Amino acid sequence: MHFVKLVAPLVFTGLSSATQGFDTFLGPVFDIHSSTNVFSPFGGDDITRELSTYCENITNTSLMIAARVTSIYADEPLFSFYYSTDQNKNVDEGTVFRIGSVSKLFTIYTLLISESYDIFSRWIGDFIPELVAPTEAAPILNTTNSFERLTANWSEITIGALGSHMAGIARDYNLGDLANLPHTPGLPNLTHSVSPGCTDENSAPTCSRSDFLAAIQKRDAVFEAFQTPAYSNNAFRLLGYVVEKITNKNYSASLRSLVLEPLGLKSTFASKPQDILGAILTNATDSGWSDDIGDETPSGGLYSTVKDLCSLGEAILSSRRLSRLDTRRWLKPSAHTSSLFLSIGMPWEIYRTNISGRVVDLYCKSGSIGTYNSWLILVPDYGIVISELVASSGDLPLPPRLADIVTTRTLQVIADRQARMQRLVGWYHRRSAATTSVESDSLQLVVPSEGPGLEVRRWFSNGIDFLQVADDYSRSTGSGSLLSVRLYPAILSEDGRELRLRAVFLTDHSPKSGLTVAQMGGVPQLFGQATEAWDNVDQLTYGGQALDEFIFQVDSIVDAVTVRIPGLRVTMTKDVS
Description:
577 residues, alpha+beta, Beta-lactamase, eight-stranded antiparallel sheet, eight-stranded antiparallel beta barrel, 23 strands, disordered N terminus, Beta-lactam/transpept-like, signal
């Protein structure tokens, strides 16, 4: 890389549009306030038919499904879908389902509201003194044949480690322990003294806090803290105790006072609501509707509706109960998994997808319990929330498939609408004199025929073709020929009246697709093919002012009025003709 050069794109040769990518910043690529029509309800007839056909092709299975799509920029849902094979039970936005591990999101949100983001750096022993003191030495791996246990080093475990599944502790306490079932051939007999005395299933008494804390300190560590994500329900049971310590209330009361009541989530419950409200297949016992999982509730015991889950997601994206800073910090990965497409947050499962040639991050939390499966999906780049709740009598790939269909189709609709309803598109001018036809300064912005962002089609500065100047400069620095210049949102003022965009200069020396791993001579190109936008932004300046910054002023009717380019010391007015 040259010390100073123009920003490079993701250029593709011989790739289909499905794998084509563009060099962008992480985050929105359009002004999300561009038009209220972008976030108006879409009939969704095609999506409804696709979902209905998929459900109808599933035979010998009882189903109840609720799905809902909302936006923080719209008052009405964008799309909804309800389905039931029970002729006596209709499903709608108010039907209550068990949400399983989506409960973990409520637990983290409660901690954030009560203590702010700083809570994640606190040591777990500050809140649960029964755990090992921070001065106690870490356990040493035994090298003999005595099978000595290597327990977790609690002195290294923080609230954030627990919330991001990075604590390396056991997944469950006695949930699913085969010793609670009739003897299985091939397993050794256990004496009563080592057999679990309680469980958080209906087959044995519910485990108490003292039972749990005594047992978890005896369990082997899975990994060292902060080594790799390892899913842990135990971590969120501990976080439930942390909530109680901080608020001096039980978990249910804390959740109600800090989250449910302020957000108006009247159909979300920490214990079983009336059966008449629920999506119950067969009966309340066999479906898992009535299972009381005790202190595991912060991990997976809540009940809710698609309406309430969407309201929760909108509150998160709107920073309704948190500062905007804490929201931005929270909606980021904490660790990667071994998949190129999945990272982990607190407690997010962050999936990465390709929308119109760019990476879009989906902040998700999924859950399952009994016959119930749930998804809550936040798309910060688009201000979109998707919730999906399923009750099914069969073991099906249905819930993730439905989430695939609803999420993909929704983002395709929104991305297409934004491309057609871009309020910054048009000509901007500043003439040197009223009597001359020569444009001293002008800028034309268009929606590109392919890919995201806004394209600079023409750009004149002091009567000179500035795109040609940029091309000459790029060639002189060895950065290649300029292909195009695209603008992407960087900072939006709180009142939405000022939009600061940054330019990405695309050249023919750009790396290959950031969405695939290219090869050269049979060797994967591991380096030099990723996005360079993040590396080169704000690099080119003139007299201490950025040449890649474009500042738009917007009037009260949400139309662009002017654009200022600080590096060129020029302000241009939009042509309204």
